[in-house]
Design brief:
Bound molecules: zinc ion
Order of helices and strands: EEEHHHEEEEEEEEHEEEEEH
Number of domains: 2
Strand content: 25-35%
Largest sheet: 8 strands, mixed
Number of strands: 16
Distance between the termini: 50 Å
Mean pLDDT: 81
Low-confidence stretches: 62-72
Shape: globular
Structural class: alpha+beta
């Protein structure tokens, strides 16, 4: 079965097919069925893009790629295969990673306000409810991250004391404690299926889902604000040119709960 879900080996983000991870910009993304083997290794280290390409080719079992590999590369692949066979017995499940740090782009500002629906929503993996942003993380018992998924629809942030800013592009929810719900999950859970996790992947742990519903108040959103022309708003002043905070590859917009930020100051 062809999968349309890719996984970043570096930050464990499940995402639509891509060459570079939308959140961390690592070139280590491939179909989740292909990279699943790699997720079992604690000390997975792939130095560069070329190695990565060969490993994915190897895991795909593709005879297509083999003739073009240099003898040294083949040696490395055999070493990896032996290592794989040796460690297969001890496997219990995917090895978790620390939650990748969310870093704000250079020139970022933080704005505060209420999230308003723009033109679309995304469906929550929990109950199909329409939400604006949802970050789902599967963690193991030790709290390490196994897999993640983030979906976001463009939405308007009604900023206190000023106008609205369109929040678009790649987003990441950074404070989860007040936005998240937690559930124990194991292999075959339909919520994992909706995240894009293959049904036969050995995943057991806690599912942490942080959602931003429509009209959510007290949000703190960090990113770079630029003016963009937005067709839907062309009837507005300035021919639809409005401030837009757009999350880009390697520089997501950071979505947090304002009350937690205030408490930390
Ligand atoms: Zn990544």
């Amino acid at each position: 079965m062809e999968s349309s879900t890719f996984c970043c080996v570096q930050c464990r983000l499940l995402q639509p097919p891509t060459i570079t991870c939308v959140e961390c910009a690592a070139p280590m993304t491939a179909p989740v069925e292909l990279v699943r083997e790699l997720l079992y290794y604690r000390d997975m280290q792939i130095g560069n893009h070329r190695d990565w390409t060969m490993v994915t080719a190897f895991l795909a079992g593709s005879s297509l790629a083999m003739p073009v590999l240099a003898p040294l590369a083949v040696g490395g692949i055999i070493a990896l295969a032996i290592h794989k066979i040796r460690t297969r017995q001890q496997r219990r499940g995917i090895v978790g990673i620390d939650m990748p740090a969310a870093v704000a782009a250079q020139g970022s500002t933080t704005i505060y306000g209420v999230a308003r629906r723009f033109r679309s929503t995304v469906s929550s993996i929990l109950d199909d409810a329409p939400v604006l942003v949802e970050h789902a993380v599967i963690k193991d018992r030790a709290g390490a991250v196994l897999l993640r998924r983030c979906e976001a629809a463009p939405f308007l942030l009604e900023v206190e004391g000023s106008g609205s800013v369109l929040i678009a592009g790649v987003a990441r929810v950074t404070t989860t404690s007040s936005l998240a719900q937690r559930f124990a999950v194991k292999r075959g859970d339909p919520r994992l299926g909706r995240m894009g996790v293959p049904a036969d992947l050995a995943v057991t742990g806690q599912l942490e889902v942080a959602s931003v519903p429509i009209d959510r108040t007290d949000l703190a959103i960090t990113g770079v604000i630029e003016e963009e022309a937005v067709a839907e708003l062309a009837f507005h002043r300035d021919g639809g040119r409005i401030p837009v905070m757009r999350g880009r590859v390697g520089a997501p917009v950071l979505v947090a709960d304002r009350r937690l930020i205030a408490a930390a100051l």
